[in-house]
Amino acid sequence: MSNINLLPWRDAVRAGQKKQFLIWLTLACVVTVAVMLAVNSWVHQQIARQQERNQLLQTETARLDLVLGEIRHIKTQRAQLLERMLLIESFQQRRNLSVRLFNQLPELVPPGVYLSSVNVAGSSIDVVGKTEAYTRVASMIRQIEDSGWLTEPRVSSIFASDTRPIALSQFSMLFRIADATAGGTR
Predict the structure, then answer these.
(1) Binning pLDDT at 50, 70 and 90, where does residue 163 land?
(2) Is residue 41 located within the same domain as residue 128?
(3) Which residues cross the membrane (predicted)?
(4) How far is CA 151 from CA 114, 123, 148, 182, in A?
């Protein structure tokens, strides 16, 4: 037994094991590369799909921005229309104010009081005139308070005038319209 040389058989087994190892190593490398390519392909598909979603979101966002711009434009138009409607409504409420004022002014002004100017500014009425006696102006104030649609009569100034042959006192009076709708309802 001492003559048997086992080295070539061991070399053959080692060569077979080495060959088998290289085959398994090559196979593992191929499988690894295939898995890496598959994962890389899957990641690129996910990226492409997400980019498509992002593009869809961007186009929808741009479309919604246009819609929001139109809505803002419509809201400003609506506000302008409401403003115009309120203006027209206030004009309609106040359109009969002058007629009503001039119709009732003779009832409010007692004999002996002479008006020289009547100015209407908003809901305020400024009256300038002359009177024979202060009591007539006081009577006019009471009639304005009793009218129901005119309020807050105040005499701004009253003073004696030098006009002859009849001595008349000049006065200035300010009063208000009771409410905005009173001018057109009665």
Answers:
(1) low
(2) no
(3) 21-43
(4) 20, 10, 7, 12
